[in-house]
Specification:
There is one protein chain. A hairpin with a 2-residue loop joins strand 1 and strand 2. The strands form four sheets. The protein has a seven-stranded mixed sheet with strand order 4-12-11-10-7-5-6, with helices on both faces. A four-stranded mixed sheet has the order 1-2-3-15. It has a three-stranded antiparallel sheet with strand order 13-14-16, covered by helices on one side. Helix content is 36%, strand content 17%. The radius of gyration is 22 Å and the shape is globular. Helix 3 runs antiparallel to helix 10, helix 5 crosses helix 9 and helix 11 runs parallel beside helix 13. By secondary structure, the chain is an alpha/beta fold. The protein binds pyridoxal-5'-phosphate.
């Protein structure tokens, strides 16, 4: 057996992969290195990466400046506990995040992954109302088609039907779900579009701690784009009904939609903001929950006078240093032009797919290109077809989409989109 086959056999024997069977896992492609927008496979093939490793690797792979930040931090310390200690990388990252986000957001809680940052946001909202003497405000309102992560609290605010967590619905806390915004990105949002949200708030606001939404783009729940105007009206509704507003920008943060944060499309500031994914440019896991001065003050003034959360690897210095370098790298470039350029190239490259029988809709926003099919794809069949054409695309359900690294050039985008259209044409 050659080395690649041996590796794959061992992988199959012992490892779980995301949302996969342990016994009957689909074909895996061993990757040995990654450089720029390319993944290098063990068999010598090189793939143009259309996924940016689940939307994180915005600068591409193996970037000299991020490597340098990691190496320098390793010489100092890779990790140190955050209880009772602090360090320059976390302090710098905290200041950067506060500076880049709207004014009322002033306090940063660092955690290990996007899901945990959502748990922390939910916990902050619950503690906020407890501190205010209103412990009955212990539920949440989320959107249908929403996705907020895989841990239990996060799962409880994911779409209960189309979400990936319906198996656990018996043990998850029950929350309320408003209809997904039906107003397209560039459409006007009318009263009707918020009718269901308004109804839920009117009925339940005395029991609701917060509304949680992914602003402008609903990611893993369906890659749907909606009008920023919805957020303006949602914020007004939340204020009127005395309910906090949480934005989950784990997918949209750091330029993906053409704004540094998707909330800028609406000029709306939430009480709590979750960041993750592209935060470290795809190098290591790190996430952050930001909250307003008011939320921080109320929680800290209540009983027990502290936020009751503290992961072992909170504020990990290696991750914080790389995050600072990634953000500085992003801001040092004309990333807006890059993302806008990608939007135009994706629109052009994916447009022919709209003519295909299997396709329901093609849509693009910022560095996100989505082909929605009429029927779910057969991943086991389709995945190798992309690899044969030299690209890495990982569809889910009815969605064949790309969220490429921002550094992808027009020739690479053209190759990527051509392969997507070609594969879909065979369905
Ligand atoms: C990916 C994602 C999460 C979960 O982040 P993990 O790092 O996978 O835990 C939560 N919310 C949104 C919007 C995401 O895209």
């Amino acid at each position: 057996m050659d080395d690649i086959q041996k590796l794959l056999a061992q992988d199959r024997s012992h490892l779980w992969h995301p949302y996969a069977s342990a016994l009957d896992a689909p074909v895996m492609f061993p990757v040995v290195a990654a450089q720029g927008v390319h993944l290098e496979l063990a068999d010598g093939r090189s793939l143009i990466d259309g996924m940016a490793s689940w939307w994180c690797a915005i600068h591409g792979y193996n970037h000299p400046l991020l490597n340098q930040a990691a190496t320098e931090q390793l010489q100092q310390m890779s990790h140190v506990m955050f209880g009772g200690l602090t360090h320059p990388a976390a302090v710098k990252l905290g200041s950067l995040l506060v500076k880049l986000t709207p004014k009322p957001l002033s306090h940063v809680f660092l955690s290990d992954s996007g899901s945990v940052s959502v748990e922390v946001a939910l916990k902050m909202a619950l503690q906020y109302w407890q501190s205010k003497g209103r412990p009955g405000k212990s539920h949440f309102i989320a959107l249908r088609n929403g996705y907020h992560g895989d841990t239990f609290g996060a799962m409880s605010v994911c779409d209960p039907i189309t979400g990936m967590h319906h198996l656990f619905s018996e043990v998850l806390p029950r929350h309320w779900f408003a209809e997904a915004p039906a107003c397209a990105f560039d459409a006007v949002c009318t009263e009707d579009h918020l009718a269901d949200m308004r109804r839920l708030l009117e009925m339940h606001c005395s029991e609701v701690a917060a509304v949680i939404v992914e602003p402008v783009v609903q990611g893993a729940g369906g890659m749907r784009f909606y009008s920023p105007d919805y957020l303006v009206q949602l914020q007004q509704l939340c204020t009127e009904h005395d309910v906090l507003l949480i934005f989950d920008e784990i997918a949209t943060g750091f330029g993906r939609t053409g704004k540094l944060f998707a909330l800028e499309h609406a000029q709306v500031c939430p009480d709590l903001l979750c960041l993750g994914k592209a935060l470290t440019g795809g190098y290591v896991s790190l996430a952050a929950t930001l909250c307003s001065e008011e939320v921080a003050a109320v929680i800290s003034a209540g009983d027990p006078g502290a936020l009751m959360h503290g992961p072992t690897f909170m504020g990990n210095p290696l991750a914080c240093s790389i995050a600072c370098a990634s953000i500085e790298l992003l801001l040092s470039q004309d990333w807006r032009q890059q993302v806008l350029g990608l939007q135009e190239q994706l629109q052009r490259g994916l447009a022919p797919a709209a003519e295909l029988n299997a396709v329901a809709e093609v849509r693009c926003l910022g560095a996100i290109g989505v082909i929605e099919l009429k029927r779910p794809v057969d991943m086991a069949r389709v995945q190798p077809m992309f690899v044969e054409r030299g690209v890495w695309i990982r569809p889910f359900g009815k969605l064949v989409y790309t969220m490429p690294p921002y550094i992808m050039d027009s020739i690479q985008v053209a190759a990527l989109t051509a392969a997507m259209v070609e594969v879909i044409a065979t369905l």
